[in-house]
DNA sequence: TGAGTACATTGATGAACGTCGATGCTCAGT
DNA sequence: ACTGAGCATCGACGTTCATCAATGTACTCA
């Protein structure tokens, strides 16, 4: 049988391993989880994620994010890119606006890895 | 001389705010949560935490952590300090050995902040 | 076509971080 | 007191990161 392994490369996701407290993390798994957590470990990105998450449809456009965050537009754009590449947000462009939407499952997966549940 | 049963300085904890997705994080709360997450966002620290968590009594001494991690002793010591200051571990010295123990509640609190639960 | 808006990318800079070797400190035996 | 073991701290070095101004790109409307 040919093992056609499915590479869903779009969103990394963190479905990598057993919960942190269950059994020692392998180096590779630790590195992947660290990358994901590093994307969260910034005040600006946490606030961006939080604002998007509590917006209508868990979605917001960049123009509505710049002022509340209080950083320059390029910086906000940079943070949104980091969050998107980490799999927490998706980007969809409508007209001249770019809308970012939350991927709730991403946060849940991270959450589950941190507990024994 | 004094028998040192070391009560580690009370840990910050992350009981700061509502779940991330419920309502926009304030700057102060975002900064505190970011500091906590930054402590987790490193492969070596994730592995250390994981090894300690899956050890007997969720406790391990430094000497048992150096080899599995594959880093120098000062570096391991540094990471353990970061995790301790972030409230994930406690330190107790017995003889010449330093034992680090998991604080399970710390991980749970972080976990809960990332979901709407 | 031309101008303006919304957003991304680039390049640069200063700060923070991970890592190590060297050293200091404390405890247990001898 | 001396020696060695276990661990923490210090100082230094290279890398990564957050941030911004300047610029580029894509779209809208007149």
From TrEMBL, chains A, B:
Pfam families, per database record: HTH_5
InterPro entries given in the database record: ArsR-like_HTH (IPR011991), ArsR_HTH (IPR018334), HTH_ArsR_DNA-bd_dom (IPR001845), HTH_MetalResp_TranReg (IPR051081), WH-like_DNA-bd_sf (IPR036388), WH_DNA-bd_sf (IPR036390)
UniProt-recorded name of the protein: Metalloregulator ArsR/SmtB family transcription factor
Keyword terms: DNA-binding, Transcription, Transcription regulation
Transcription regulation as UniProt keyword: yes
Keyword Transcription regulation annotated: yes
Gene3D superfamilies in alphabetical order: Winged helix-like DNA-binding domain superfamily/Winged helix DNA-binding domain
Origin: domain of life: Bacteria
Residue span(s) of domain HTH arsR-type: 25-117
Organism encoding this protein: Microbacterium bandirmense
């Amino acid at each position: 049988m040919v093992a056609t392994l499915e590479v869903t490369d779009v969103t990394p996701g963190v479905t990598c391993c057993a919960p942190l407290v269950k059994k020692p993390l392998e180096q590779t798994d630790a590195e992947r989880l660290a990358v994901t957590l590093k994307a969260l470990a910034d005040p600006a990105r946490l606030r961006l994620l939080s604002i998007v998450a509590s917006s209508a449809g868990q979605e917001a456009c960049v123009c509505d994010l710049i002022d509340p965050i209080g950083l320059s537009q390029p910086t906000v754009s940079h943070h949104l890119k980091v969050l998107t590449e980490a799999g927490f947000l998706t980007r969809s462009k409508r007209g001249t606006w770019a809308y970012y939407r939350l991927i709730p499952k991403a946060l849940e997966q991270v959450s589950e890895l941190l507990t024994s549940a």
